[in-house]
Batch of 2 targets.
Target 1
Amino acid sequence: MLWKRAVHEYIYFLQKMKRYYEEGDEEKKPPEQAPVEDQEPAEEVTKAIEMTPPPSNLSHRNKPKNQLISGAKDPFPGSASVTKELLSKYERPGKVKLVRNMCAQRFKSLEEKVQTAVGLTARHEVLLPEEDGYLEADEGQDTWTITQQDIAEAVDITSGSKHFNLVLPQFGPYSINYAGNGRSLLLGGRRGHVAAIDWQSKNLNCEMNVMETVNDVRWLHTQSMYAVAQLRWLHIYDSNGVELHCIKKFNDVLRMEFLRYHFLLATCSSTGFLQYLDVSVGKEVVATNVKAGRLGVMCQNPYNAVIHLGHSNGTVSLWSPSMKEPLVKMLCHRGAVRSLSVDKTGMYMASSGLDKKLTIFDIRTFRPLHSARLPLGAGTLCHSQKGLLAAGTGDVVQVYKDTRIAAPKTPYLCLSAKAPIHGLQFCPFEDVLGIGHGGGFTSMIVPGAGEANFDAMECNPYESRKQQREWEVKALLEKIPAELITLDPTKLGEVDTATLEQKQREQKERLGLDPNEKERFNPRRRLKGKSSSANLLKRKKKVGHERQRVSMSVQERKAKQQEIKEGQASPGPKSTLDRFKK
Amino acid sequence: MDEKDLFATEYPVSASEDEGDSDTERKHRKLLDAISSLDGKKRRKLTERTEASLQVSEFGISAEGAGDKLSLSDLIQPSNKSSALSTVKKQLKNISQAKSVELPLTREQSNRIQRVVAYEKTTEEVSRWENIVKQNRKADQLVFPQNDEKVKPARLEEVVTRWKPHTPLEMEIFNVLHKNKQPVTDPLLTPVETASLKAMSLEEAKLRRAELQKARALQSYYESKMRREKKIKSKKFHKVLKKSKQKEAVKVFEELRKTNPEAALEELQKIKKTRIEERMSLKHQNSGKWAKSKAIMAKYDDDARQAIQEQLQKNKDLTRKIEVVSESEESEEEGGVVPDFVNDAQVNQDGLNPWMSGKLTSDAKVCVNQDVGDEAEADVSAEVEDAADEDSEDELSEEENLLQEFEDKRRLRKMEDEELSAIHKSDGEHDVDEPREEQVTAFNLLFQRLLNQSKQESHKEKRNVSEGRHKVISEEPVEIEEDEKEDEPFLMETLDRKQDLEDLDALGQEALSLSVSSGKKEPARESSQVVADTQAKKPKLIDHNDVLPVKAVKVKTPLIPTAVEEEEEEDNDADQKMIIKEAFAGDDVIRDFLKEKEQTEKAGKPKDIDLVLPGWGEWGGTNLRPSKRKRKRFTIKASPALPRKDQHLPNVIINEKRDAKAAAHQVSELPFPYNNPKHFESTIRAPVGNTWNTERSVQKLTAPKVITKQGHVIEPIAEEVLQKRGPCKKPAIKLDKPEPKSQRLPKKRPHGKHPVKRKHRAGRKHKKKSG
């Protein structure tokens, strides 16, 4: 929050400075130039903010700038230039060429504003304080030969302390989950051990045994609540380990994903149901029968909040709560899918199957990019914020770099956990990979894994209690409805071009009846023999004819209009004898 | 006017008549003339007499009454005065002037005309405002009231220049400042300052400052550190210190080794001596009293355990043989430069699934046969094939046999490598071309010579053993290796025991080159594989390569999961069956998927509408189908289906159904000024919120269209604005001039309407302009 504000202030300051000099200029210019300046100050500003190309920059510099009374010069005239690459990073896609028409002016001014905004955003890059980097080995050395101990010794004490082991051999393999800002860690042992830890200070916030199998654990939107998928039902506990809810609608849950912008907890169960729980109101949003047997593999696409499910027949299906059928179904492996992970950009999906292959898919085109064979195959996969891919193969964790470019040949780092690996997750905003395994938990240092520059407005690892509260309120206000989850989020910005007919059909489907349908005429029963069947039929026919007539008249009117349009207006009133005309 | 008078004028007046009378008469006539001239056409030229003369002239000079028409009444002029004729005259005149008065227009008609005129007037008037209205519509923002002068803060320079010293104190100060050439007008910099600025650039200054700062800081750190360390009494600390010093010493030694080998050798001797001493003593062997007591405690106490471990580590460190990194080192003697598991992994991997490996080699064979052109290469490959065949057979028959085979191969390969290296060395020990050798220092060379001598002997022996089998050693060892790898990705590659890091690196490069070459050969190989596949599974119609097209690259894994070893160990028949089942299970998966895809495609297609009524116009009944012709006639053909999104993706089914719930949130009707959805979409494409934008741009993007100041009266627009802004023509009809007002603009006015009747959105006072 602070840095962002600082950025704003800085930018504002820059702008102010610029204005100051510019105004001085204008005042001192000879009068014949003044009107020109008057006309296009706005344009000039925008131009300056749009990546001023070198020539225009030069022209800026050539202007006589020392026109102040004081004779002071602006040491850096004009606005600083922004490189094209930087600008293109923030470019808003979908720009349309300007067309001369009614809305051209509005169009133009808006486009200018957008470009200005892009320029300003690009300028912010300068103020991102942190740089990211990776381990680089000496010549003839490989990065994977560097052990955790080496790294921990080489880095500073605080970072070094991020490599640690929790020896918890009793309660079986651990599934883990880091909170959204990476501060708290949740451990769920298969044999019922649940613990919430502030892993950096190693403070134990709560610990308990739920005396039931724990399938998965997941933090909800704050660090004060978490969901535990237990043997039968889904339970929600608070940070002190007090059970808040037992949700019996969600039974036999195997895996969970929390969609933080939608406040949805997506669960998949051994009964084959994909369910969504709105945690802000505590209601089930939708329950879908996937019809693909036991659902034990699940991950979310952080870009569009689509849920990916892996099935035993080697297919991966993509789901959104608004559709009862999968959005996409793709065959990824010959054997069953064991694990899935989608990277932060939502472009690449890594999947591993029983065929021991690790395949990277481009999920914009749904094409496999490359594939690698791992010994024993990867049981768990996880992408880091910077795109590293961790794979848990048996009891060894291997971290791969640049998997989107080429198939991995050698790992970037690897570590043997000495027990079968069960849960993997990169800690957000930290160069740390959490490994939950049969013997407890291991925190592994993976240089270059985490995002170095965090957006404090979005997710603040250092937030205070008060900030946390405020964030919660804001996030709730900005909650995105579940229906907006689509494969392509940009679709929402498009005009719905469906025909009226289609819309009516949809309405009919949605409501279960057609609101536009006219009810059939049911002749009233009359007394005194007026309701004989013949009479009824006659009355029905009458109404039928009436309707026909109305529709006919509409048609006739249309035909007439057509005629008039074509210029064959009728010369006068028709007479009955016209028909004999030739 | 009286009738009599009229006649009197016509009558020629005698000269004796008085002046005044004639004057009035003239005027009267003139009037009459004027009136008659109004009649049009026969306009008569008036001639004015300027000189006095008689009325009647025989030459007709006088123009008075010259071209007059003869009227009926003129004929009875002589009997002028007789009153009896006057009535006749009147009647005659009436006859000549008799015309019917037109009926007045109906009220509707007159109203219409009035309206038309009024409309024209007002349009003319209102159209003058058109420009302003347009401008206001285009404006991004309108602020009301509009002509408020903004109070600008005066700039510093102005303020300063305006100021003059008054009091004596001020004067004094001013004088002092002047003496120092302190700029009065320029409050920013003195000449001295500017000069200094010029002298040193900002970066330089910054650098300098940073340097100084750093130096100061370092000095202070060092001082404080020394002070602190002086006071420390902890043994542990000193221990650590010693350790670090040792490390440093090692570093220095390394440095020395590179720069001054002679001195380094001496150093080495010293180290060796310490090692010998260490080996002699029992100091760190954990056999002392202290160590034993700690060993008991170690079970319960972490610290004790650590202490013991430290001791042991120390011992290890001290007793470790100091080695020089050389290319050719005996694998038996290798001191753990590469951890053992590196090699373990390779061994395990190949033994992972013998059935699979056999399969893959046969696949690879085909490729190689396609690829290889050279005879020599073919030779090699053939040989390798044989070997592979043998291998697979062995695997199927006996595990131990297989292992034996592997062992042989491994030895062979190693030997070959070593030989190669030996050749290199014998060729040129000081070969500059070899990049690796470049890096080897003189010191290294010294040792290498010694080592090589001993090794070469052993190599020769080994070569003698295996020469019978392995005959070809070509001039391009790398290429052969490549081929071998392609042939037997499982066998050869994994059995190649890597001796040190350099070797591993070389391997990596090989792999890279391999990938490059394989990339080149891709198409040919693919086709060959397709052929092979189709041959293998002829009855299948589905080409599996299409469905799961990406070939898996094998990952080199330094660490191998323990489960793999177990897998290798248990080699039951049941397990084999499972593996086979697993492998073949995939085929059904693909077929099922393709079937499903076909079904969904079919379901998505629009269907023909069948309107055939059986028995209509024909015989009907059981087993009687309507005729083909009829069926054809009464089925409405559906339009062809739109191309599916997944038509080129065999392994994907994309749902084409409309997401109605999401569509409810979309814009369903194009808003007013836009006529192309693309244009509208592009205007809403950019996010406006502060999550994606800077605060400044958020403010700009979300600025309100109209701003009204609270508590200010917003007056209707005044006419002065017209003169000020926008070129427009003068009004044809001058309106009542409104009293001078401040020029204000209403927010919006549609054209062609009365501006005077518009009400302002935010206005409180409505003023009507009289039109």
Note: Chain B touches chain A through 100 residues (CB under 8 Å).
Target 2
Amino acid sequence: MKISIKDVEYVALLSRLELTDEEKVEQLRELNKILDSMEVLNKVDTSGVEPLAHVLPIHNVLREDELRATLPKEKVLQNAPEEDEGMFKVPKIV
Amino acid sequence: MGQYEAVIGLEVHVELKTKSKIFCGCPTEFGGEPNTHVCPICLGLPGVLPVLNKKVLEYAIKAGLAINCSIAEFSKFDRKNYFYPDLTKAFQTSQFDLPIAEHGHLDINVNGEIRRIGITRLHMEEDAGKLTHQGETISSSLSSLADYNRAGVPLVEIVSEPDLRSAEEAKAYLEMLKAIIEYIDVSDVKMEQGSLRCDANISIRPVGSKELGTRTEVKNLNSFRSVQRAIEYEIQRQIDQVEEGERIIQETRTWDENKGVTLSLRSKEEAHDYRYFPEPDLTPLVISRDWVEELKNGLPELPEAKKLRLIADHGLPEYDAGVITSSRTLADFYDKTVSLHADYKGISNWIMVELLKLLNAENMEISESKISPEGLAKMLKMIENNTISGKIAKQVFEEMFNTGKDPEAIVKEKGLVQISDEGQINAIVEQVIANNPKSVEDFKAGKEKSIGFLVGQIMKETKGQANPGVVNKLLKDKLNEL
Amino acid sequence: MELSTIHGLRDLLANREISAEELTNQALEKIEKIDDKIKAFVTVTKDEAIQVAREIDQKRRKGESLGPLSGIPMALKDNMCTEGIKTTCSSKILYNFIPPYSAKVYEKLLGAGSILLGKTNMDEFAMGSSTENSGFFPTRNPWDLNCVPGGSSGGSAAAVASGEAVFALGSDTGGSIRQPASFCGVVGLKPTYGAVSRYGLIAYASSLDQIGPFTRDVTDCALVMNAIAGHDSFDSTSAAVDYPDYTSFLSNDIKGMRIGIPQEYFGEGIEPEVEAKIREAINKLEELGAVVEECSLPHTQYALPAYYIIAPAECSSNLARYDGVRYGLRAEDADDIISMFSRTRNQGFGIEVKRRIMLGTYALSSGYYDAYYLKALKVRNLVKQDFDLAFEKFDCLLTPTAPSVAFEFGSKADTLAMYKQDVCTIPINLAGIPALSLPYGLVNNKPVGLQLVGKAFGEGTLLRVAYTLEQNSEQTRLEPSLEGVK
């Protein structure tokens, strides 16, 4: 067991997932199983190995500072679950 | 504050004035109807990808160089993950462990003492959208509205070391930083429009202590005045708290400008765990030394260097040189005027006294006034060749400030040309002597002062247009003849 | 068979033996007839398809120049944005999302003249190996309706295998093109990372995702690659290299070609019957003049755990934007923002997606980053170095695509058992190199796939080997009887 139900709750909060108690228990079981299976990585000697974040040796991909067409407003808002005054409406924040 | 010392660090966000956003081609222009400066990319729609604006990188390097940072040879972007409705992707594309610039400093002058303030880092990131809270305050509103016009506007964040010790120093640092950014022309640096923003990290500790106290972060500082007031307030609040035996809580606080207090931003917020990791959709940056060198050579003279030059080469007083170089527009105005008429002190005096007085009275920026360096230079020449007197010149200056008219035209229009004709002045001198026998008697009796009154009367008669030198000479001659 | 390939149909269309509209109608009729059994499509774009077909026919009548795929009906996995057409990732959280823009690959295919029949089912957000994780319904394997088509691009594979579409695009993050291609008996290619623009592909794991084709034969694979590969200024990770004419590699000749057989991909975990088929293919290649030799990729066993750190980490961030604010599902009953976020996401995502979000969030969270994420990136480098070293000696490598043939629904309910489905394909994504799955015979009347792995931008070599094998072995040309659906 690598993680506890508290860890599951913390990670769920960070992930913004409102899990039910049953879901928490299931996630705990599965996550521990997966994390246990990753133990094998500790056997690999990675000293002196560079982390590989980008697989292609590409760098400095830049664009010129030029304007492009913006999206028409009706298309901006066409998928909005709730809209008001041309803006996306959300429930209270604090 | 007695036995306590404040420890302050500033995090300053500067909006870069590129045409397009940092990762897409939408305009960065301020204003605009909500959600009209957006595209699939800055809206963070499923499937979109960012491409870095070259100008953003260039401006960030320039800014880094101007604040004495070393520019990274290898840099990259990272994702800062957190949920907030003003973020379209629920992460902010920023830089974490390999910022574009690090290890800089700025020298500030507070009460004649030069202090070197360390700069930890400068990094590039994107701005978020804007939320409008429906209702009185953020805490009483039931809903908010999101406008993403600002989402993706390029920013640099400049983080200082906790080297500042007072609100005054913080303000001086911020003013110097603003001046530098303005000089290198990478931002409008307007606090009221949000293109310059400042958060302050503040803690206190007993004088002599080396340990840092628990700090609070104060946000919502929208003017230089609020930076100074908020820091002063927060330092005192922390002292009072400690004196009462209470602990300082590490938290984010907001400055309430109207009430003049900082307030805790209590929320259900979890510990900040931003889960930074390298942005896989952007490639790393390898910054060539040649490019850095080229940008360095292209930097204009910065305020501190310019100030020293005005003191050493132009003989200006340190204070005047400091004021003139504190803003690029003022310094440019001085430079231009000097290039037309090399009267350094004269020009400096006119800027320091008349120009700043009028600007302050109107609460204006120099760019908003109508006066031009050409006009000022011409006017100074007119004083020098006795076309107008210094006193008249103040009238002319004000007229130029308001209308932008040519000084010669103003003088002609208003009939302000100086009278130096001895015959014309002599007639008035005689008339004034005749009308003021008491003063003449006083002069004869040895009261030298009374000559001043007589000069004043002559100037009054000529509406100030008489050449004061000629008046003095002729009056003395006449009095001695009597 | 010849008639259902791009190159076969292209000639019929050019000779006006069939019109694009007729061909499109045939495809739509087939979908109507069999897709209630196969369930390959999430959305069928009937009206749009017919309209585009008519436009192409008109152009042809007028003698206007036509793109290389003109009149060919195809399908897209439902994680590629199609302007004005619902794009869901087979997730409830995007059940109603209509993108206002199109993915680059879709633009390119439209430009080439091909006709979109619809959007295909997938494991939700491309997370899974069976298409059982679709938020809507599972897709069934045309070879055996009791079996899965593989995943995550199961809908695209099934659509091509059943003849509903002439070709389809899928995406491959850890095997999601190759494994379903293997299970459904079609050709599937995962191109080199950076060879096909990801702009408009709804991201699962950005550093691993790549779009590629499902086709009925190797020639078609080359034809589709010609249409979709190339540099794109909208994708920073797109490679600015010279892209070849992929059909130029279609020569029936592999004499002297050096093919490596990495021993780690055989033995334990691989079904013996599958291994036997692959060994047959190896013998065939030797017969055809290839120089075959065993080799070793020693870090292979670490690829799977490294992948299950890297991919979920990126996914936890990529899927954070589904928060109910701007599009998609929003939970109804929330009165503050945090509960709106949390309820929307809990209702909208399926269990596997939530699991990977949680796993990735954990791996990136404070205190665990170095132990998990950083470690995984280092292991990723070792896996890539294994391949770099192997390609100093070999032109390509050959392995099984999947450890088994298509399995029955529900038979891999165990999370780890399902993850192991991708044991042969994941290392290739970590290294960013291309790999092609080619059908090679049947086991229990279900197709086996062999995987050819090449060096970066070495798709041509894979096409050449696959083409040669295809020309010389009946085992590479498989067609399901479709008895269960008639």
Note: The first helix of chain C runs from residue 6 to 14.
